[in-house]
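Record minuted for everyone:
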Amino acid sequence: MTFLITWQLHQGKLHATLAHFSQLTTEQDQAMMGEEIKMIGRWHDLVSGTGVAICESDSIEAVSAYALKWNNDMDISVQAVVDDEQAKALGSRLLV
């Protein structure tokens, strides 16, 4: 499954959270995610303290556990999403 993760940093948490994130090695970052999550990409709007990530996992529990590691500093939303091909396949079922 593919997940869209969005976040909004809590007021006053931007600098401390960014400092923490910037010190994570690739290995530490992956360890926080766990073996069940493949990060496709993350994009940050540092000025507003918001961002998005796309990841893949067969486990909503793994994705939720990862999000919980950050939610002291930000509000996080996790949504299952589909790509164009999947959306078209689902849409074609509506035509029957």
Summary: The chain has a mean pLDDT of 96. The beta strands are 2-9, 38-45, 50-56, 74-81.
